[in-house]
Amino acid sequence: MNIVTIPHNNFNPYFLPGLDTKTKQHLNVDVEKIIGICAEVYGVGTSELANKSRLRKNVDTRNLAMLLMVFLLDMTLVSVSMRFKRDHSTAVCALKTIQKLYQTDIMTRKKVKLAIERMELDEMKYRKLVEFLISDMPISKFRKI
Fold it and tell me: How many C-beta atoms surround the C-beta of residue 59 within 10 A?
């Protein structure tokens, strides 16, 4: 009887079917934690973020959650927007909006920093996120550098 051994390779998903290479296990952050922290910072319920409400505090919470999902979990704009039952162009607009508000609004800057502190990020992720927020680059160009 021949026993076939499969080489163990954590970096190649073809050796281990079903391995999600996009998941960041070392961060201890997932979608639900991001949504929960953003909702807590803005004082809204997590269930309010997926509905069609356009109240400013709901929109800002959703925008911040989308930004953190894109940067911390390396999610695509399509998958982030689907999580909130939106179109991907909404995610693009959310990132632009939170970027502009971070640059101009003191309260938004404080809330973003508070949410980032509660995530307990490593220094490199934190710097990359803040670098995006203070730049005027769209996310598509920022990811290429």
Answer: 17
CA separation for the pair 16, 6 (Å, rounded): 9
Kind and range of the H or E run holding 58: helix 56-72
Q: How many CB atoms lie within 10 A of CB 43?
A: 9
Q: Please give the domain boundaries of the chain with CATH numbers for all domains.
A: 25-142 (1.10.1750.10)
Return d(Cα 14, Cα 72) in angstroms, integer.
Answer: 24
- pTM given for the model: 0.78
Residue 96 in contact with residue 138, Cβ under 8 Å?
Answer: yes
Residue 92 CB contacts under 8 Å (≥ 6 apart), including other chains: 77, 138, 139
pLDDT, tens digit (0-9, with 9 covering 90-100), for 67-78: 999 999 989 999
Cα dihedral 40, 42, 44, 49 in deg (nearest 10):
-100
